Amino acid sequence: MAPYINQEDKKTLTNIMNETKHWFESENPDIIVKSHIDEKDRALTGFGDRIYKRKNDWENLNATIPNFQYALNQNITKISEEYNKLKNNQASNLTMENVEELNKTVENYNTTLNNSIELAGKALKFVDPPVSYEALNRHLKEFNEVLH
Predict the structure, then answer these.
(1) What is the end-to-end Cα distance of the chain in Å, rounded?
(2) Residue 41: which H helix or E strand, with range?
(3) How many CA atoms does the CB half-sphere of 98 hold within 13 Å?
(4) What is the DSSP letter of 30?
(5) What interhelical angle do 96-122 and 34-87 show, nearest 10?
């Protein structure tokens, strides 16, 4: 988890843990009341949830990018094959107009993907990803729907 935690997070985590430790070591009678323990635990759990979400978001983004690249490449290959058929006067499922339109679509989604890769490449892992893997997945889904 260390790559996903920045200095501010470390300070916050240390403070939460110290407060919890001091509370447990105190003579406060509330330490045996479950609802009070749960209340103290919320800060630590909420903090941990935020860090785990950051980690998962980065992992999902790193998995989504190659999937998007693969889909782009597969479709570029299909479009190229259809274009070559047209060029060689062979039967094709597309017209030249379709090929031009699809090439523009691929170009637009490729730009989206490249911008996402650039932003993600510049960002440090201990901050939330600058690109949402959910948004990138939506683009991928839209891309696939347009081409099929």
Answers:
(1) 40
(2) helix 34-87
(3) 13
(4) G
(5) 140
Distance CA 23, CA 41 (A): 11
What torsion, rounded to 10 degrees, do the Cα atoms 37, 40, 45, 51 define? -160
Range of the domain at 33: 2-147
DSSP 8-state class, residue 129: -
What does the pLDDT look like over 8-51, one tens digit per residue? 999 999 999 999 889 889 888 888 888 888 888 898 899 999 99
- Asked if residue 133 lies in contact with residue 60, where contact means CB atoms within 8 angstroms, the answer is yes
For residue 105, give both structure tokens. 């679509």
Dist. CA 129–CA 119, nearest whole Å: 9
- pTM of the predicted protein model: 0.78
- Work out how many domains the chain is built from and give that number: 1
DSSP 3-state of 108: helix
